Amino acid sequence: MDVEDTVKKLNLKFRNIEGERLILAITCDENKNVLMVAFMNEEALKKTLETGYMHYYSTSRKKLWRKGEESGNVQKLIKFYRDCDGDALLFIVEQKGVACHEGYYSCFHYKIEDGELKITGEYYSKR
Amino acid sequence: MDVEDTVKKLNLKFRNIEGERLILAITCDENKNVLMVAFMNEEALKKTLETGYMHYYSTSRKKLWRKGEESGNVQKLIKFYRDCDGDALLFIVEQKGVACHEGYYSCFHYKIEDGELKITGEYYSKR
Predict the structure, then answer these.
(1) Is residue B107 part of a domain?
(2) In a domain, A120, yes or no
(3) A 49-68 residues with CB below 8 A of B?
(4) Which of A55, B32, B55, B59 allows an S-S link to B18, with CB 3.0 to 4.6 Å?
């Protein structure tokens, strides 16, 4: 894959997010569980396509990060999709270990029940 | 559900997106297909919880919109989750008709194959 060429053909609509030019990256496993959502700048996208492993852009640390660089919980890219208006990509990955830094399989492990935030084992906190 | 109280308990981290205070809203069907991702301001979230139907915030039109208000393709809220850092919600909905204004079931119907953008019937363009 010619990464420069692919990124051009994606015709992405970068958004002004926290003062940076970013797109949304939704990451799912092969069973369609949503693992996380994060941001990507063009460099993070290129690194992802070049290496085959997910890279994101951290708005708080203002830098590129390779998912799992400290925890070892890397995400191997399998395939990806673009949405209709081009400001979001959906990545299907093979998740090593867990996606969430809080130790849960998915970052979406807080369920809202009866108006309360509850950590739940249901649906998004397990494979 | 006391909507004001629930929104407070969600303890959301609104992001500066296109100059507005917004969160990310990922919407999936009951089979875990990702239908779309859009933005919500606090008003859109409250309207969603009050009415039981998805409302988003359009950054281009700079206004609240009720999903399906013109097409009739409304999204009935079933349940929802918050992510670990509080800048995103994941909504599980019952989708009437199709989610995408281009006529596809999901907005993520462009697959990237061999570096090319292809409209695909696979995975995200059908139930």
Answers:
(1) no
(2) no
(3) 59
(4) B59
Domain of residue A97: give its range.
Answer: 3-101
For residue B93, give the CATH number of its domain: 3.10.20.810
What is the DSSP secondary-structure string of B81-109? Answer: EE-TTSSEEEEEEEE-S-SSTTS-SSS--
A39 belongs to a structural domain: yes
Q: Total domain count for chain A?
A: 1
A68 in any annotated domain: yes
Distance from C-alpha of B58 to C-alpha of B22, rounded to nearest angstrom:
10
CB B109 within 8 A of CB B36: no
Sequence-separated (6 or more) residues with CB below 8 Å from residue B73? B67, B95, B96, B97, B98, B99
Question: CA A23, CA A38: separation in Å to the nearest integer?
Answer: 9
CA dist., res. A115 & res. A117, Å (int): 7
Q: A47-85: per-residue pLDDT in tens?
A: 999 999 999 999 999 999 999 999 999 999 999 999 999
Rounded to the nearest angstrom, the minimum Cα separation between B108 and chain A is 4
Q: For B73-110, what is each residue's pLDDT tens digit?
A: 999 999 999 999 999 999 999 999 999 988 899 999 99
Contact B90 A18 (CB under 8 A): no
Contacts of B8 (CB under 8 A, 6+ apart): none
Calpha distance A4→B31 (Å, rounded) = 35
